[in-house]
Amino acid sequence: MRTLKFLLQKELRQISRDSAVFRILFIMPMIQLLILPLAADYEIKNINLGVVDHDHSEYSRKMINKITSSGYFRLRNYSATFEQGLHAMELNKIDLILEIPSQFERNLIQDDKATLLIAVDAINGIKAGLGSAYIKGIISEYNQDVRLQWIQYPRFDSQATVELTFSDWYNPNMNYRVFMVPGILVMLITMIGSSFAANNIVREKEMGTIEQINVSPIKKAQFILGKLIPFWMLAITVLTVGLLIARFVYGIVPLGSYLTIYAFASIYLTAILGLGLLLSTYAQTQQQSMLVSFFVTMIFNLLSGLYTPIESMPEWAQLITRLNPVSYFIQVMRMVMLKGSGLADIKTQILALLGFALIFNGWAILNYKKRSF
Amino acid sequence: MFILIWMPIVQILLYGFALTNEVKNSKIAIFDQARDEASTTLSDEIAASRYFSLYQNVYSYKEIESTFRKGKIRMAVVFPRGFRNDLLHTNHAQIQVIADASDPNTANTLTNYVSAIVSDYQQSINQNQALPYTIDTRIRMLYNPELNGAYNFVPGVMALVLMLVCAMMTSISIVREKEMGTMEVLLVSPLKPFRIIIAKTIPYLLVSILNIATILLLSVYALDVPVFGNLFLLVGESVLFAITSLSLGILISNSAKTQQTAQFTSMMSLFLPTLLFSGFLFPIENMPLPLQIISNVVPAKWYYIIVKAVMIKGLGFMAVWKETLILVIMTLILLGVSIKYFKTRLA
Amino acid sequence: MEKEKAIRAVELTKRFGSFTAVDKISFDVKKGEIFGFLGANGAGKTTAMRMLCGLSLPTSGSAWVAGFDVYKQNELIKKNIGYMSQKFSLYDDLTVRENIRFYAGIYGLTDERIREKTGFLLRQLKLEEAGNKLVRSLPLGWKQKLAFSISIVHDPAIVFLDEPTGGVDPIARREFWSLIYEASDREITIFVTTHYMDEAEYCSRVSIMVDGRIDALDSPSNLMKTYSVDSMDGVFLQLARKAVRTE
């Protein structure tokens, strides 16, 4: 016990002296939390539109007006021919071309039918899909406007309509940041837990000080705890800073209790630190440990449901997410913060994380030998 | 070392087959208070769609709430009592759709899908009444008619991988020498600093070329993304970007004292911005203006545009000369600054 | 019998796959001796020492350190020995005092003893002014002396020194050896490996390893007589000519 005290003293002193670490630990969360949510927005707005209007009629102008005033589209290019518009698309200036044929107004009013062509830059499939859906929607609204101009209302009533009312629960403002911020916090803590901790131990290996420890009567368990505890504390501090930023910058207050978050975070950290520890028993140089932990963290982050939904993944990928501690934490964070879930609601996740913690730490402890073969 | 080679492969595989922003098989719950022919038909149609997967039929609002809280469903559909009667006699019925808006995008998409299904149903019960004054819109998807997600992210992954290998690994490796003390030995020798830098960076340049080759091969054969444009132009631009990344790596190594700092600085100032501001994950035009301006400084943004143009749109040099010039200027500035400060910094 | 010898090795061997680093060495070290473990780079000195310190498990053979069996009583050995590695293994980012406190603490010294020892060490090494300076800022020679003093802060029975004087100027080396003598006077057995042959003459007895085996084991003066040379360098050259392995 006393030995542990000395170990902790040393670790904490070293960490507090390393100014770069300090800066990284506090500046990094701040930057990530401030910039990421602002940038991370999949919503589609401000699509760059190009128009090729061969008709130049009142109707075509009204329609274009309706489209541009919708807020979804920005008119960036107005060409005389489709080829010119295409050229603008090639140069990445526009995402969509609307081509209005020369007899548009006349066809619509006299022949009851007019055709429009929309060419979409489909490289970003989602943007293309949504963009074309929006413009179709606006055009069909315009279509209704035209009809109303010419037909009496009652004639429409013979249509059966099913009306949908929408309620958005848990994030009535549809604020994407509320969704991202908890996820980002998770990512930060994971990085500190696995990379930082692993790196620290491997550094001692590289510097040679670990030999001095191995030759001393320090027990394995003491050494390991001596490394885990400071980093655990560090990660919790970063979590706190993150939660504070979430509260004061974004106004995000968890619906559930802060205690649930901290409780789960503690268990999660034990698992993740165990992973870092495990990593450090295998790596000989810092370069190795950094690369491997980066790689692993990246895969974990991508397959965790932070950026892309898990349900959309194929079976095999979903299986992997179940083996990924990060995905559980993300779920829990979102559930507790946004839906007010309590400890009982997250028991599956707690169990899973306890399992991870046992496996990682157990394996690491078995692996770590004071005496090499 | 071999992770450096595998990483792009894994990324491509993941993005290609696992990660997608598309929404499918979202779990929903249905609260059918009507339990009549119409509501059952519509429920079945919704559940059968590939976008949804029925998790549970629920029987109260409380149940809906608790299922949401347990994180089991993303959306609930509620049919009121007498749904079919309303539809038949008053021509008007309502359905309530409750979406879990904690993920606004998915919520949006799901509500769009459910609207589409309902409007199809609506059409089918209206027996094709043709309306006058119809505008027919034809949509043509260019460059990527099958809406293959890979077309979007392969260029992005290329940028990411190059940035990672060239910048981050180079900076870590240079700083390692500093930490170990061997850098001083090199600097004291008659070798010009420039030569030292070249020696450190060439291996990573080669690895990154290997990576590009791997990525392109995978794209063509595993993901069905062919290279429409000139292969040489593509490789040439990639090498240029690689050099840009290398110079960034050198710049970072100048100021970092430990390997750990080098890694984290690269991550924060290179990797993360590349991820965010290149435009492949999140559309740049969605971002607030200050961030959009920042994105112009990120080399990856220009490289991404170039790759899209050459590889997917099949364009030639004339289409990308502006972006290429920007990259060249950036590289020259970076190289100049980092080499100038290389020796001085060590003192 | 083992209790009287500080270290006893019988046919101690270490193999790495098909490579035999240490080949059946046998020797004794008496209590209070200064024992020099010499040999060229790559001869197997460090490997042998690591086995005695409990850092590496022997492949075969037996050894007792401070009366404890190297296989079964490894942790007991560690309580009773000190160790100083080639890299000096002090924490660069801690101060002199903090390093002393840490190592003294983990070897079980009470707070009172730690205070005493710290004061004593700082005075002995003339580092009173530098007590709160980071080790990183100390010149090499001071670091080396500090590392040695810390390695014996818990008054162990034996202290193992692995190439402790690498890269240090001759005056500092002389000062270092006076510290070693001082420790030896306090009945601490010194086991030191080195490839500086002139330091061999400071030892009571030396052994010379060549290609994993001990080719000579005697006091320096006897060895010089046997090989008819007037310096340990000469002895070494005679033996090393036969060597097959180089680093």
Please report the number of helical segments of chain A. Answer: 14
Task: Determine Rg of chain C (CA atoms, Å).
Answer: 18 Å
Coarse shape of chain A: elongated
Which class of secondary structure composition applies to the elements of chain A? Answer: alpha/beta
Helix content of chain C: 25-40%
Main beta sheet of chain C: 6 strands, mixed
| Largest sheet descriptor of chain A | 4 strands, mixed
Low-confidence stretches of chain A: none
Largest interface: A-B, 109 and 107 residues
For the largest beta sheet of chain A, what order do the strands appear in spatially?
2-1-3-4
Quick overview of this protein structure:
The complex is a heterotrimer of chains A (373), B (347) and C (247). Chain B is an alpha/beta fold and 347 residues long. Chain B is built from 13 helices and five strands.
Tell me the layout of helices and strands:
The complex is a heterotrimer of chains A (373), B (347) and C (247).
Chain A (H helix, E strand, L loop, with lengths): L1 H16 L1 H21 L7 E7 L4 H11 L4 E7 L2 H9 L5 E5 L3 H8 L1 E9 L3 H26 L10 E9 L6 H32 L1 H6 L5 H31 L7 H25 L3 H17 L12 H8 L2 H15 L7 H21 L6
Parallel strand pairs in A: 1-2, 1-3
Antiparallel strand pairs in A: 3-4
Helix pairs in contact in A: 1-9, 2-7, 2-9, 7-9, 7-10, 7-11, 7-13, 9-10, 10-13, 10-14, 13-14
Chain B lengths: L1 H17 L7 E7 L4 H12 L3 E6 L3 H9 L5 E5 L3 H8 L1 E9 L3 H22 L8 E9 L7 H31 L1 H7 L4 H29 L9 H25 L3 H19 L11 H7 L3 H14 L4 H30 L1
Parallel strand pairs in B: 1-2, 1-3
Antiparallel strand pairs in B: 3-4
Helix pairs in contact in B: 1-6, 1-8, 6-8, 6-9, 6-10, 6-12, 8-9, 9-10, 9-12, 9-13, 12-13
Chain C lengths: L4 E12 L2 E12 L3 E6 L5 H9 L6 E6 L2 E2 L4 H7 E4 L11 H11 L4 H14 L15 H12 L6 E5 L7 H16 L3 E6 L2 H4 L4 E6 L2 E6 L1 H7 L5 H9 L7
Parallel strand pairs in C: 3-8, 3-9, 6-7, 7-8
Antiparallel strand pairs in C: 1-2, 1-4, 4-5, 9-10
Description:
The complex is a heterotrimer of chains A (about 375), B (about 350) and C (about 250). Chain A has about 375 residues and is α/β, with parallel strands linked by helices. Chain A contains 14 helices and five strands. Chain A has helices spanning about 1-15, 20-40, 60-70, 80-90, 105-110, 125-150, 175-205, 210-215, 220-250, 260-280, 285-300, 315-320, 325-340, 345-365; strands spanning about 45-55, 75-80, 95-100, 115-120, 160-170. In chain A, strands 2-1-3-4 form a four-stranded mixed β-sheet, sandwiched between helices. With about 350 residues, chain B is α/β, with parallel strands linked by helices. Chain C has helices at about 45-55, 75-80, 95-105, 110-125, 140-150, 170-185, 195-200, 220-225, 230-240, and strands spanning about 5-15, 20-30, 35-40, 60-65, 70, 80-85, 160, 190-195, 205-210, 215-220. The model of chain C has no long low-confidence stretch (mean pLDDT about 85). The N and C termini of chain C lie far apart (about 35 Å). In chain C, helix 5 (about 140-150) runs parallel beside helix 6. Chain C is globular. At the A-B interface, helix 2, strand 4, helix 6, strand 5 and helix 7 of A face helix 1, strand 4, helix 5, strand 5 and helix 6 of B. Strand 4 of chain A pairs parallel with strand 5 of chain B.
